[in-house]
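Researcher: I'm preparing a figure for a lab meeting and need a structural model of a single chain. I don't have an experimental structure, so a prediction will have to do for now. The sequence is pasted below. Please return the structure as tokens so I can convert it later.
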Amino acid sequence: MWHMTFGAVNLLAIGAWIILIFLPRRPLPMTVVLYLGVGLLCLVYAIGLTVIVSGLADPVGPAGAQASFTTIEGVRGIFASDGGVTIGWTHYLAFDLFTGLWIAKDADSKNFSRLVQGPILFLTFMAGPAGLLVWLILRERRARLYSRGKS
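Model: Understood. Here is the structure written out token by token.
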């Protein structure tokens, strides 16, 4: 079950990223990315987390391990099962895609070319926070240049 879920969320995320990076930013493709991409990933995450936490399937960690978010060992316990890894990965995919969608909409509103956006979106897909950091630096730099030009 978890291997199939893992593969499905990966395909879903890749499809949404392809739409986001390469297709025109019209309402329908952006709605697909938001609801069939981000929304569906969030749904899979919520259901999977509920199944794991309730103990219905694939309890986290080896027998006797303490699963928690407050220690490295506790987080290791959470990710010590196929279900824990799949749900954790789905969490990353959902938030990175949401971040990419925000970057794309923000960049469009600030008239950044798609050639500039492409590498930033790809970086966000591959290493979420790094892509977000690059975008925040570029948008701030442009805002400062724009405000100087108006003075």
